[in-house]
Amino acid sequence: MASELEPEVQAIDRSLLECSAEETAGKWLQATDLTSEVYQHLAHYVPKIYCRGPNPFPQKEDMLAQHVLLGPMEWYLCGEDPAFGFPKLEQANKPSHLCGRVFKVGEPTYSCRDCAVDPTCVLCMECFLGSIHRDHRYRMTTSGGGGFCDCGDTEAWKEGPYCQKHELNTSEIEEEEDPLVHLSVDVIARTYNIFAIMFRYAVEILTWEKESELPADLEMEEKSDTYYCMLFNDEVHTYEQVIYTLQKAVNCTQKEAIGFATTVDRDGRRSVRYGDFQYCEQAKSVIVRNTSRQTKPLKVQVMHSSIVAHQNFGLKLLSWLGSIIGYSDGLRRILCQVGLQEGPYGENSCLVDRLMLSDSKLWKGARSVYHQLFMSSLLMDLKYKKLFAIRFAKNYERLQSDYVTDDHDREFSIADLSVQIFTVPSLARMLITEENLMTIIIKTFMDHLRHRDAQGRFQFERYTALQAFKFRRVQSLILDLKYVLISKPTEWSDELRQKFLEGFDAFLELLKCMQGMDPITRQVGQHIEMEPEWEAAFTLQMKLTHVISMMQDWCALDEKVLIEAYKKCLAVLMQCHGGFTDGEQPITLSICGHSVETIRYCVSQEKVSIHLPVSRLLAGLHVLLSKSEVAYKFPELLPLSELSPPMLIEHPLRCLVLCAQVHAGMWRRNGFSLVNQIYYYHNVKCRREMFDKDIVMLQTGVSMMDPNHFLMIMLSRFELYQIFSTPDYGKRFSSEITHKDVVQQNNTLIEEMLYLIIMLVGERFSPGVGQVNTTDEIKREIIHQLSIKPMAHSELVKSLPEDENKETGMESVIEAVAHFKKPGLTGRGMYELKPECTKEFNLYFYHFSRAEQSKAEEAQRKLKRQNREDTALPPPVLPPFCPLFASLVNILQSDVMLCIMGTILQWAVEHNGYAWSESMLQRVLHLIGMALQEEKQHLENVMEEHVVTFTFTQKISKPGEAPNNSPSILAMLETLQNAPYLEVHKDMIRWILKTFNAIKKIRESSSTSPVAETEGTIMEESSRDKDKAERKRKAEIARLRREKIMAQMSEMQRHFIDENKELFQQTLELDSSTSAVLDNSPVVSDVKLIALGPAQTQVPEQRQFVTCILCQEEQEVKVESRAMVLAAFVQRSTVLSKNRRKFIQDPEKYDPLFMHPDLSCGTHTGSCGHIMHAHCWQRYFDSVQAKEQRRQQRLRLHTSYDVENGEFLCPLCECLSNTVIPLLLPPRNIFNRSNFSDQPNLSQWIRTISQQIKALQILRKEESIHNTASSKNSENMGELQLPEGFRPNFHPKNPYSESIKEMLTTFGTATYKVGLKVHPNEEDPRVPIMCWGSCAYTIQSIERILSDEDKPLFGPLPCRLDDCLRSLTRFAAAHWTVASLSVVQGHLCKLFASLVPNDSYEDLPCILDIDMFHLLVGLVLAFPALQCQDFSGVSLSTGDLHIFHLVTMAHIIQILLTSCTEENGMDQENPTGEEELAVLDLYKTIHQYTGSALKEIPSGWHLWKSIRAGIMPFLKCSALFFHYLNGVPSPPDIQVSGLSHFEHLCNYLSLPTNLICLFQENNEIMNSLIESWCHNSEVKRYLASERDAISYPRESNKLIDLPEDYSSLINQASNFSCPKSGGDKSRAPTLCLVCGTLLCSQSYCCQTELEGEDVGACTAHTYSCGSGAGIFLRVRECQVLFLAGKTKGCFYSPPYLDDYGETDQGLRRGNPLHLCKERFQKIQKLWHQHSITEEIGHAQEANQTLVGIDWQHL
Ligand SMILES: [Zn+2]
Ligand SMILES: [Zn+2]
Ligand SMILES: [Zn+2]
Ligand SMILES: [Zn+2]
Ligand SMILES: [Zn+2]
Ligand SMILES: [Zn+2]
Ligand SMILES: [Zn+2]
Question: pTM of this prediction?
């Protein structure tokens, strides 16, 4: 070790190195005053080791500290060499059965939904995988840091508390033994000594507050003038502010400032300057001045270096203690003992207290170090955990207050440890009984909310920012209360009862402060000026919701407690509202001979509050009482007699009336805050302890009073009393008052009131109200949610209230009510309601919002129509009420109710005279239905001797009494049945009448009790009715059909693009229906099809007509006509790259002529295939450009496309495009001069071409001399011996129209610009190369996709691909006509020279470094430039053929050199086939030319196999290329998938099937060529294994393999730390799916500069890995990220699904996620198809917010 560190150590004080740990420890052992001895040592050495300069040197410091400071302690502790001592201790120790692993930020944690006592009980990954819970319903989250694994904690798990690993250690834990028995007395004593001194030292120095003075016993002899300017973290200033300030204050670069800021943020402090006091003070004042303007300034201290040194060592010491106690439980116990031992100063003086109480003064780094020590010591020792819990509870108030005033997040506060302590059931129970913890928490909480109104209620109205901030922080106390209550007691002691009720009292005090808070008064006339504050109150309510529920749960467990709590709650409610009648004049209401006294109160005129937690708690307790045994057996024991029902119902009723009035539009002027409050009142997050309980309270009231009285009070509160109490009031009302609004308002109020009555009678699914259990309740919720529409699991979960364990109970019942439908490639899995459950549907289900109600109604009616049933939605049969609530049903048959029903029916009958509404009638019908159901139930379940007192049928048959003599309700229903204006309700009325008769029958059969006569007409559906019904049904069908058509039309308009997008995305998902191959070529029957060469199949000229998508004009594609173009998108690509490290360094100098076989840096062209006139496109593009400029000026918005870069969206399909390709006829036909005979063979041809090239080269040379020297004249030309028929000064005429020529240039330039990322320059000689390259690369990429998917080469391609390839190939072939002839000739010469040696070129790549397909395309497409000057009789097609053969042979040599090395041992048999013999021969030749460097001859069979496999991709690409170039139809055999088609391809390509024949036929020239190829020095280096080469066939690139279980990815990412900031955890670890690199995304630390801009790690990575496009997985978010360039990106759904077929973007739900291979395939396909950019474009068009994101910073 010493030798390694030698150079570093040299600069260090020799005395440090000479210090011996053993000697020092020896001295200490002898010491009489150990403390002062040790302190002296520290005082002397610590400042010598730590903080010696401006920059920290942690490794060096740690090394020296270990040597000089910690070493002696370890020696002392062990009494021997710690290298032996500690292992001994470890061996003697019994390993702990607790895991206790402290979580890192981002580490995955697991909780079991079945077994965890509460959701805070978690396991680390290792423990989880070894536990039984991995097969349970578990939940997965990423840790925010802090907290530890609960494995082994028997209190945390209902089942399976140990994983396999920790189970091993559980054998003897039964009896708690003292861990100290494993230690010797000496070790105990020494450990105790040294721990006591060191722990005290650390606490003292860390809590030391003086800035330049040390504690006396640590003061140094001589003190230097060296200080640090220490900057501390706060949560007020932003990163940017800090960075900016630092640059100013300490003159550092931005990079250094970022470094400082990052450390300050992470560790909580960082010295930003080192020097003398003055120097540091100066920096401090600048920082303070600069940051004090708006807020409190940044905290800065000028600290003496020795203090900083001791503090740093103090931290080191605490971590050291943490690791030392890991050796033995005994050591841990001693440390706990030391920490909790009371100090000399009495109360709160133990070291643990001192640390906790200074918590808010410590910086982040110090806090987290000692928190971790606490977790690994105090919380891991069963005995001391308890003692520590008591200390924590005793200090609770102080710690919380410190936290509330501190500004750091809770995770950095000691207060956060509450979750570790309070969630342990035994500790929580102990703290409640012994420390009165419940009361303490609630009182502490109340103490922080001192702002009250005159009635002592909370007032949030005029909160300052600071108070609001405090309010936010104080909410965490509610969480503590929740932790304490989360595990419910199984048995009660008297003490527990007493303390719980004491806590309950405190809780009631809290609720009392909320009862009636935020009261509101209806605004009339003016609109309110300022929206009142409402959120704070609702936040409080929301946070308390679970606590309120848990309080009730606790009460439910013990009857004594329940009754006591009930009494207390009632008493408090009386205090709140006892005197609600005070000062009010009582008024008397009377209807139908009933009268009741009440107060005069109008919701619309007086104050009303939504917050009634005390009433609601009482309602909850009442239900519990109703459930209890006492209620059945001894109801007289209950304090029910003290209740005053009118008082109970008053406030909840007001609240419900308020909702009704808001709905009726009476409170419009009160603004949105009220609307929001009403919304939350009903919302799933609050309703359980708000709306639901108000309903229960009213139910309680009704069940205890005369229903007639109740209804009258209700009418009065709804301000409807007048209408129903005065006969004919309604008529007068509607005729006299013409004010429509008021009529409307009253109608709505009546509807709302009826709805409320329906709810009061119908909502009996809370256990205690009705005779149901919890399962029934959840089942009913789910049935009603699914009645609206099928839902995904997460949607359903969101619609159900969660309990404190985040459970909805849904899983237990969902199977019973719904079917699960699995998701497809997109979308989610869905639950669908089982048909048999629809009969439980209640249209007036109380948790429906209005929108949901109408959707559900529509859906259910539709369902009924589909099943050919009538469309009535009668009320479902309900469970019976519990005894306490049983009398509630009588409300339905009460006189006032019958009067209300009668009145409304009367209005409906008289129709025109009154203001009434159909919904009103619908509700009355529903109520009547409910009453009938009720009566039927009663009759069916009646006991022998009981008389059924529910006689609704009788009552509605009676006509009204004199003087009104109104008809009976029944009679009115019969009348209404035939009313023409009530078509919609007929089914329901019919159902009512039918049910009425059924009941009548039951009554008649069971008893003799007289039932009023019913007219015989009811049952007979008159034929007239039937007719009508039929007509109605037909009309309905017609209407539906009309609607459907209309909907379809608008759908078509709206979703044209979406649909097309779908179509386009199917790119290669081919079934013949979606893809029409328009093979324009005529069917050539039975002829052997040949794609090239002199024997090429002649295809008759085909006329092609196309339509412009912009002007809809049709035009023929011709050489001389106006250009037609296809929208196209050119992009750089690395999809096929075999070498991602390679990218174009200097695009200006880069020579793309030869493509390397690693295919890095390709240029891909794609097209949506939509055709336009060139001029139409120009006009369109100009207008887009103009519009965009205007838009940018106005809004400065980005768009999904970059107009300045030439991007636009295809006008038809909105596909991203950046140029256009011209549409051309096969160009070869234009240039091919006809009918040549007697063509040269390959050797002759090569010779001819070589001569021509030589001639050209001489000419060029002369020209250049001529140009530079400008001396000689052109006569020299004549001196040159030109080959026969070669006319180099001949320039052919360009056959194309101007417009086509222009487009040829346009597309060529675009390819050049994008492909090389340079400024457009149409003159650049590289333009043609880029065009050929893009053609070759695009063909290769499509060949890859087809092969990967086992698709036939010429199978049905989608039109857009077919069109794109055809146009691209023909364009590339025609491009030379607009380029400089000499430039193209130059390229040709050079390309040719790479195969046929030519002295004039040096540095040509060897054949191993050339992609042969690119070479082929280049040669074939450049060749016409030479051939056009050749009049010797060599035809273009001869040239093509020879070029193809030559390149093919070169490729075969390439394959033989690189790809035949591995010998297959299976077959050593002698070569038999013709091919095998030939290839052996060839191999021998090569072997000879390479100087036997090639491997010894393998078998011929093997060689031939390798060649066939290796050359296939090349042959396929060539077939595509010549097919599109020459337009020869593909042979039918290759159009179907299956065999490899080797023979067919050879035939089509005019090759012998024995490819080696090519060599034999041309051996004269080939031998010399092969020799020249093999003699290349690079080839030799390769054969000598000095370099690599690509071998064939190249394998397809794939996205990286992803693990099946998502959590292993999270785990992997949690181990990843930022590569730039030394071991820091990355906040947004992001995985490149292309190459598997993990990146530190979205973070300052890893920003780099790219083209003059700061970009995040992902954007930077795309430039090297994907040439601008990237596919990433954001691991913490479980989100796929697509990036393209700097400005474009989108999120894409991840390939991980939970068991319900849903993704979890953001990992919010935490269900286990598994890889969905199909979805991952889809992403890979998008990548292979080069569709990432297009996908981003579509996403951004669909969602404009994506455009605004700063993608480059990710
Ligand atoms: Zn663990
Ligand atoms: Zn474990
Ligand atoms: Zn479990
Ligand atoms: Zn047009
Ligand atoms: Zn298009
Ligand atoms: Zn990558
Ligand atoms: Zn980083």
Answer: 0.80
